Amino acid sequence: MNIIGIVFLIHATLLGVQGVEIYTEKPPYIESCRIYEPEFTKCSTRSIQAFMNQVTKGIPEIEKSFGHIDPMKQEQLVFKQDNSDVASIAANLTELLISGFGKMVIKESKVSKKDFSWLTKIYLPKMRMDGMYKMVGKILLVPLSGAGKILLEIDDLDILMSAKTRLYEKAGFTFYNVTSVKVKLEVGKVRTNMENLFNGRSKEVEEGTNQFFNDNWRDLFEALRPLVVETVERTLLDLLHKTFSIFPASFFVEDIPNSLTLYGRKSKMITD
Fold first, then answer.
1. φ and ψ at 20, to 5 degrees?
2. What single string gives the DSSP state of each residue in 174-192?
3. CA 74/CA 231 separation, integer angstroms
4. Exposure pattern of 172-201 as b/e (b: 16+ CB <10 Å)?
5. CB 113 within 8 A of CB 86
6. pLDDT per residue as tens digits for the range 105-156
7. pTM to 2 decimals?
8. What number of other Cβ atoms are within 10 A of residue 261's Cβ?
9. Closest Cα to residue 124, out of 160, 163, 162, 158?
10. CA-CA distance, 221 to 200, in Å (whole number)?
């Protein structure tokens, strides 16, 4: 066998397009569903759950472009909250490590027949953020000015995710381009710990302030809600955008139209 034949056998289910490998044969862990059948939402929910279970176990092409799903990294998040009754702060978070998405439960996966956008209900038993922070402002009327380690832990996190998609063609397959993600969050409980809250002036006051925040965790979460929302939205958009540029949409929705049928013209991948 010549070298071309060997390479073909090794990459029997993968095709390189502009340096990015895509799947051209559906792997056994993906269940295909038909959107015009009555039980589509149940089928889609089951399919996406099984797929995310496999992503958690590890899919080399996703890990190559995104990294590990649990824990996952974000380099920096700049946050400003000045239109709230409970907080007026400016914060810069770095070296973020986010854990908990490896145990996500897909409670419902709906796909629009009109534009093939998604409405997905996700549950995380626990989400945790660890990182470094710099912060100045007020939370719950407590003046803050500090920099150090931050921990934020959320129990029973319900996520309602609305994702916009645009279909496009690549290598003879129709793909999803996930263009935006918006989420609504409901939480069961929140715990936090911020070290060096007052630039090291009083460890006792720092510990008391963290305890005060944890005793009033509902108000604390409302103060930090925009920060958590942005973190979840950025994380899911990055993950979904990279994942669905590798796996054709028809692997998941068997009877999905191509972009020419849906939009009246062919569509290309939108990149920044």
1. -110, 125
2. EEEEEEEEEEEEE-SEEEE
3. 9
4. ebbbbbbeebebebebeebebbbbbbbeee
5. no
6. 999 999 999 999 999 999 999 999 999 999 888 888 888 888 999 999 999 9
7. 0.85
8. 11
9. 158
10. 24
